[in-house]
Specification:
The protein is α+β, with helices and mostly antiparallel strands. It has a single domain (43-192), classed as tt1808, chain A (Alpha-Beta Complex). The protein is 24% helix and 33% strand. It contains 3 helices and 13 strands, in the order H-E-E-H-E-E-E-E-E-E-H-E-E-E-E-E. The chain has helices at 12-25, 46-62, 121-136, and strands at residues 30-34, 37-41, 66-70, 73-76, 82-84, 88-92, 102-103, 110-114, 140-145, 150-157, 162-169, 173-176, 182-185. A 6-stranded mixed β-sheet has the order 3-6-8-9-10-11, sandwiched between helices. The chain has a 3-stranded mixed β-sheet with strand order 5-4-7. The chain has a two-stranded antiparallel ribbon with strand order 1-2.
């Protein structure tokens, strides 16, 4: 049997229907569709959730006109045929009002991912997601890697990839460049690793 890797598993519309059914019938099941492949997104554990709370608070204090929208489904990739569920997206508080499950990414200033403990987190969060978000034109991608105890900031998307990647160990400060314009003091992240 030949496996076709250059063709999507299904049409985007069909994926959306499957994802809607999975979310309704299997509480907590979250599906993504990146590079034409369906992937299941792990449910966040307590430390994962606490990291999102920490970041949400920092964003609200630093940029009160913006909001970190946790778990918002977005249209991703170059032609917006992909579907991703970042752990958070930074945008104006009303940016997605009136939109459906999968929103247009134009108002997004930053996508956020916090690694989970599942086996494909490396491929998904370090390879597929940065490429998809860069193709989408999201200005900043923040990756909090709990296994490596590192924070990565990707910026300057060129339509295919991010031109700039800055990585620091937990405990150091890191700048989230414009249009975000926030400095993260990452010391607290040391408390939320296994």
């Amino acid at each position: 049997m030949t496996v076709m890797t250059d063709q999507p598993h299904m049409l985007t519309e069909d994926f959306e229907a499957v994802a809607r059914i999975a979310a309704r019938e299997r509480a907590g099941t979250r599906l993504e569709f990146i590079d034409g492949v369906i992937r299941s997104k792990a449910m966040p554990d307590g430390d994962h959730g606490r990291i999102i709370q920490w970041l949400l608070k920092i964003c609200m204090q630093s940029r009160p006109e913006l909001f970190l929208h946790p778990g918002q489904g977005i249209k991703a990739e170059q032609y917006r045929e992909g579907r991703a569920i970042p752990d958070g997206v930074l945008a104006h508080e009303d940016a997605f009002v009136g939109q459906g499950d999968w929103v247009e990414p134009d108002p997004i200033l930053m996508a956020v991912e916090v690694t989970s403990w599942d086996s494909d987190t490396r491929r998904r969060d370090h390879v597929e997601k940065p490429r998809a978000y860069a193709e989408t034109g999201i200005p900043v991608y923040l990756l909090i890697d709990r296994a490596k105890c590192e924070v990565s900031v990707y910026s300057q998307p060129n339509g295919q990839r991010y031109e700039s990647v800055h990585v620091v160990a937990y405990g150091k400060e890191i700048e989230l460049p414009d249009p975000v314009g926030i400095t993260l003091k990452t010391e607290p992240l040391k408390d939320w690793v296994r």
